[in-house]
Amino acid sequence: MARKKSTFVCQSCGAVTNRWAGRCESCGEWNSIIEEVESAGIGSSPKTIRGKSGRVVELVPLSGEDKPAPRIETGVGELDRVTGGGFVKGSVLLLGGDPGIGKSTLLIQASAALTHHGHSVVYISGEEAIDQVRMRAARLGLAEATVQLAAETSVEDILATLTSGPPPQMVVIDSIQTLWTEAADSAPGTVTQVRASAQAMIRYAKQTGAAVILVGHVTKDGQIAGPRVVEHMVDGVLHFEGDSGHQFRILRAIKNRFGPTDEIGVFEMTGGGLTQVANPSAMFLGERNTSTPGAAVLAGMEGSRPLLVEIQALVAQSPLGTPRRAVVGWDSSRLSMILAVLDAHCGVRLSSHDVYLNVAGGMKISEPAADLAVAAALVSSLAGIALPSDCVYFGEVSLSGAVRPVSHTASRIKESAKLGFAKAVVPEASQKSIKSAELELSNLSTLTDLVARIASGTEILTQDTQEP
Q: Which residues form the signal peptide (predicted)?
């Protein structure tokens, strides 16, 4: 009998080595390498079978009739928006999020909405008993929904149950880390088991045409636990984000083979479950104080949706030798760049000040169009001058101090006018490319112009911030 070959797999990043080590060389984690026995089952490497040749695959030309992917609309508008119009038949989505953020609540509400439209849905729970799922559905007022439930973790039993009758139109697996298959000789939750279980569910989705939703746990740094190869295998990756101090939840598309990426859907967590937020901009600006210095409104974009959020900055004299730099909801390295540009080109020296920056409402902004709003908030806080309450800002700041144009200018202006804003500070190139009768556009060519306009409300900012 041939001896089975064993490998050593890191349970944190999935790196494979030929010998055991206390520390993984790929991710740096300690005591994460476990010995696993290779097998020829699901998830193992392909084996060469002698005496059997492959089948001939039909080759087709690149040109042909473009058919839209068949979709299953849930009726939950924000969820359909993020997925690109609904779940595609035969696709597999991976939904990740922090514990208690509302992943199961969202999927139960989506499953119930699908059954109301006549679709068949199977909900497989590997973490909770059937009674626990029923109690959550009762709290949400969805006890009468015809969702079929099961509490199982064996992949073979799940597939046997799903293939015993007519294939459902959607299958929810909560969660992929709890599944295990006999084809892999390792404990549930390990890299091998997660990869093997995901591959089995993907094969089922492609063969039957059912849409499969896999729930994934996240690590302490916000990444979906398990091997990254699972994210490459699935058709879409969704992240459910939110701050424990806010009731708002954001569903973000990280990967989508059948729709746009970086699209977001906004929900509000209430006692009756998740409710859709029809106007996120009004929600994020609902409680802002218009007379406080250090607050600027950003007309941003999230995917194809214009979104207005408030950028809050606080600049205070630091008693420490090394001033603090605290950022919530934005890139800390980009804040350092804006501070350097203000110092080098505008004479606004903040090297002896503590700087705190926050995006109100628990939003996370990553687009460079927020540079101008951040710079305006910083200068406003340092000068103690409140910015106009009816003005929005957007534009990218380069290292030379120039204000560069950004995309979707028309959408940003239209959303600002809809919410009652009257002015917009935009890059000079953007004003030349678009004319707006809805807002009064004020153009900027350099960041120095912005500092001068804010400082015009008083004689000087501080003794350190005068123009050289």
A: none
Residues 132 and 206 in one domain: yes
- Give 3-state DSSP helix, strand, coil % of the chain, rounded to 5: 30, 25, 45
The answer to whether the annotation marks 99 as part of a ligand binding site is: yes
Are 311 and 270 in a shared domain?
no
Same domain, 299 and 216: no
- pLDDT > 70 in the chain, percent: 89
Mind listing the pLDDT tens digit for each residue in 8-18? 888 767 788 88
Could you list the residue range(s) of the whole structural domain that residue 104 is in? 75-277
The answer to the question of whether 14 is labelled as a binding residue is: no
377 in any annotated domain: yes
Task: Say if residue 224 carries a ligand binding annotation.
Answer: no
Judge whether 395 is annotated as a binding position.
no
Q: How far is CA 62 from CA 47, 84, 107, 257, 468, in A?
A: 31, 24, 37, 18, 62
Range 25-29, long-range pairs (CB < 8 A, 24+ positions): none
Same-domain status, 209 and 305: no
| Residue found under tokens 């809805």 | 438
In a domain, 49, yes or no: no
Residue 102 annotated as binding? yes
Residue 169 shares a structural domain with residue 293? no
> Is 97 assigned a ligand-binding role in the annotation?
yes
Q: How many domains does the chain have?
A: 3
226 belongs to an annotated ligand binding site: no
What pLDDT is attached to residue 227?
61
Tell whether 51 is in a known binding site. no
